[in-house]
Design goal:
167 residues
Length: 167
């Protein structure tokens, strides 16, 4: 498995992966992503900015992650533990349903750690939907600490904000 920047040529496969993931989450009564989240336009912008990365094997896209410095407005009131330096934000982590349980999520999380270290970030921050226990467990396994809850528009259930100090 390799991890590289996503390209516009990957867009259809990436969008399909999110649609399948969203449908699977909803079938399991996890309403983390609604009908327009993430939108095609959002994913196009992520690719244009060079912030979207894909895990690939041969012609298959196994998963995707977005890494940038863009903090959501809802994160303004979170009491982050690491105040000095700059924070990297992790968004929209997804593993293709056909490749779950094969280490793709772990590889993307390790990639984020290495990316942060190489670029001098002091922490990685992210949020996870309260009802998505699999994602929350993955983040906690990787040393992320819960820092509080935030509410996003069109969601009744909170997201937990997590942070990990980069050494």
């Amino acid at each position: 498995m390799d991890i590289r920047k996503g390209t516009m040529d990957d867009l259809n496969k990436i969008v399909e992966m999110y649609i399948i993931a969203r449908r699977d989450l909803q079938e399991n009564d996890i309403h983390q992503w609604d009908y327009n989240d993430p939108s095609i336009q959002m994913l196009q912008e992520d690719i244009k900015k060079g912030n979207l990365y894909v895990a690939v094997q041969k012609e298959d896209i196994l998963g995707s992650i977005v890494l940038d410095e863009e903090k959501e407005p809802e994160h303004e009131d979170v009491d982050w533990a690491v105040e000095e330096g700059k924070a990297l934000y992790l968004h929209r982590l997804v593993v293709h349903l056909d490749f779950q349980g094969e280490g793709t999520g772990k590889a993307l999380m390790e990639f984020a750690d290495q990316y942060a270290k190489e670029r001098g970030y002091t922490s990685i921050r992210l949020d996870a939907y309260e009802e998505n226990e699999v994602a929350r467990g993955l983040y906690e396994k990787f040393g992320y600490k819960e820092m509080g809850q935030v509410y996003f528009p069109r969601r009744e259930v909170p997201f937990y904000s997590y942070e990990k100090k980069i050494k």
